[in-house]
Design brief:
Chain lengths: ~300, ~300
């Protein structure tokens, strides 16, 4: 009898999703940032995502409730960005102890609503449930959205020779940015509309864990130019690689697209750093492992 | 500073959803069994729902993991039935302690998948998260589905003089049925296709709590014929009213439709009891309160 810590998060997910049978209309099932299903036609697909944050794991009890609400929604939105799509409707499940303060919960809701409205989507459904005494509160946010069929970006489309980019800076998110980050929706939409992005994901568990996932989904190895990693202020290389919760975009495209991108990005998003950090290769990965694994010991 | 137990579940939900701003395309926001949003046209609307079950609240740790998985999915499906719609795609969030047994989690997934496939829908996305030591495990299931625009049944369409019906029998669900119940999807679909159902919901918190909700949403009072309540075997009236977790349909329609229904139901669903239990009225409700309130003391 083995417990989850024996397997690690990726193996747990792989074993569980192997038990599911895909139904009709499912274009991309579990394993990418969002699921992709048949949409309303006219060249659109529907994107689906659910995510949750838990007190003591994703935020501390003393954090600002408004920021906790922001984060709960922003994490889900970030997964829509990672697909080159846009979220539309959100549903929220709150599991709360009965001794939770009403005013505190209202602040969480204000934070959730603010994040949703900032990105032109709306919370259309809510569910609340009580928790046994002493259990940590949990917020789950599920979302639906859409993308043009021709512009959906999966993790699996990377090719040997592709250039790897990340937006923003990495590491040190625990000092506050993990609660206030901006999902890169506008940037991802512009990217997928104007470039052939081969593969993309959002960085939630740290580049050291997420880059091997993208490379592996694409059937590629990778090389990482550690000197080129964009580090947040006061952060050392190890932190940039392994802290996690950056919620920046990691993506791959051809060398030719990459050259054009570097020029156009600087004009379009002058205030958001874009860094070329390495490339995909046909050989095995450099031995980069680690990061934040939800079930590792 | 007041905590949630001071307000009770309905007031908590009302206060929280008042903080949300409805976006474009939202036809029915929080407050009904599902949210209703603009669909793909051709007379269809999209339905959205999220729900969760928590160890110690909705199931005991020693329950069969396959049944726990069934219940997690069946609860969400039951809300689609309550709207006269059908679910299509499901997303699952599992929050698990690291010392959870892999084989146990796989059984939960098998139960979820079985319920989904039984009702022709599929689980297209999964998310797993770790929990702090000692925290109760939680399964959240979000779903999307659809209904014909002309056949969506809200809680709010009941009229004075309407007849009230419930399917099945009530009470005693904790003895096992709460883990194995069949969402009334086929029955609700047939009802909404063949009758003008004015208002409908699924019974999750007990008739004593849910009937006042339906009546109140419809701006009606109600009378309940307690003699006519269909009680599960070995169950007294109070239990049929207040045990909760029946997941049967409660619905309202005109007297004329009701007479036709009673005849046709017996032919169509000979093995599922249908009971006429009272009616909606223009005066205030009979003083029926109680049932299962998630945040009451």
């Amino acid at each position: 009898m083995l417990d989850l810590s024996h397997y690690g998060e990726d193996a747990v997910v792989a074993r569980l999703t192997a038990l599911l049978e895909a139904g009709p209309g499912t274009l991309t099932g579990p394993g990418d940032d969002c699921a992709v299903v048949e949409g309303s036609g006219r060249g659109e697909v529907e994107l689906l995502k659910t995510d949750c944050i838990i007190c003591g794991v994703h935020f501390l009890p003393e954090a600002s409730p408004r920021k906790i609400g922001w984060k709960a929604v922003a994490r889900t939105l970030s997964d829509f960005a990672a697909m080159g799509g846009w979220p539309r409707h959100l549903m929220v499940t709150l599991a709360l102890p009965s001794d939770c303060q009403m005013r505190w919960v209202e602040e969480v809701y204000r934070g959730m609503n603010k994040c949703a409205r900032t990105f032109n989507c709306s919370i259309v459904g809510g569910e609340t449930s009580s928790l046994p005494a002493g259990a940590p509160m949990m917020i789950s946010v599920a979302g639906t959205g859409s993308a043009r069929r021709s512009q959906v970006v999966l993790r699996s489309g990377g090719e040997p020779g592709d250039v790897l980019f990340v937006t923003g800076t990495l590491g040190g998110s625990q000092q506050g940015r993990h609660l206030t980050f901006m999902p890169r929706l506008a940037e991802a939409e512009w990217l997928s509309q104007n470039f052939r992005v081969h593969a993309m994901m959002d960085l939630s568990d740290g580049l050291a864990m997420d880059l091997p996932r993208l490379a592996s989904a694409s059937g590629c190895g990778f090389r990482l130019d550690e000197e080129a990693l964009p580090r947040s202020r006061g952060v050392v290389l190890e932190q940039a690689l392994r802290d996690g919760e950056d919620y920046e975009l990691l993506f791959a495209m051809s060398e030719r697209s990459a050259r054009r991108l570097v020029v156009e990005w600087a004009e379009k998003f002058p205030r958001l750093k874009l860094s070329r950090i390495g490339g995909l290769s046909s050989d095995g990965a450099a031995g980069l492992t680690g990061g934040w694994d939800h079930f590792s010991e």
